[in-house]
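Work Package 3 (structural annotation) set out to generate three-dimensional models for the target panel prioritized at the project kickoff. During this period the team completed the workflow that converts sequence records into discrete structure tokens, so that structures can be stored uniformly alongside our sequence database. As a representative example, we reproduce one entry of 300 residues exactly as it appears in the project archive.
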Amino acid sequence: MHILTKIFIVLVSLLTVALVPLVMVNAANERTFKSRWEQEQARASEAIRDRDAAKSRYDTETQELASAARKLEFDLKGVKTEKSSLEASTNKLEAEAVGLRARQDDFNAIMKTYAENDKAKTELVKVINSEIVTLRGRLTQVEQEFVKLDEELTNTRAKLEIADAARRALQEDVQRLQEERDQAMGTISRFVAWVGPLPTGGQAGAINDTTRVPADRALSATVIQVRRGTDSTIAEINAGSRDGVQEGWVMTIADGGKFVGNLRITAVDVTRSTGIVELEDAKSRGEVRTGQKAVARKGE
């Protein structure tokens, strides 16, 4: 075999031995490169998305900044307008300040004139204040006296109303007693005209003129208790010595306007009196009962 052919074979063999690892490495590197390429593609896509998002944010912020800039320009115009107004107001105030200074100068001149009479004014103010304090104290005292007088007037009015009510009630009682007295007198007159004059001797149940005591006042009482025995009837009334009742009085017992009998007082207590019922006729005039009136007439 020719030497060149051998060399070529050897070179081919060596080349084959050298290329096999390279092919294997290339195959392995191809998978790695593909994976890296895919990763880089993903990163590139993510970077594109981030870029788009950043651009969107940039656009939004740009719009917001533009809006803020327009607002600031509007505010700046308002501030400039306000500044102009403030400058005008400042000029006006300065003019007023000049006028006030002139008025203050006039006032200072007037005060300088009044300063000469300041001491007299101070004394006058002291006197006036002293008089005001005195008048306030007097006013307080008068108000207290007025409150006391008003309370006394209120109490007096209340007492007057009570007294007036009592007077009206007393007048009504007097009127009622007068009516009862007139009715009783009429009944007695009819009774005397019917049965004749009342006996004055020592007959049983008659009034003994030697023991009879004329009443020194007109009085009306109510029969509160009646006790009947075999020989006499005892009645008790709700009036006693404090009302002026005395032993020996002869009171007329009436039922409304009808004569029922007499009550000769035999015992007197402070608030009650007891007597013997006389001239009672249960058949024609009815019996003496509780609740009926016992009337005494002055001088009888």
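The CA atoms of residues 205 and 213 lie 17 Å apart.
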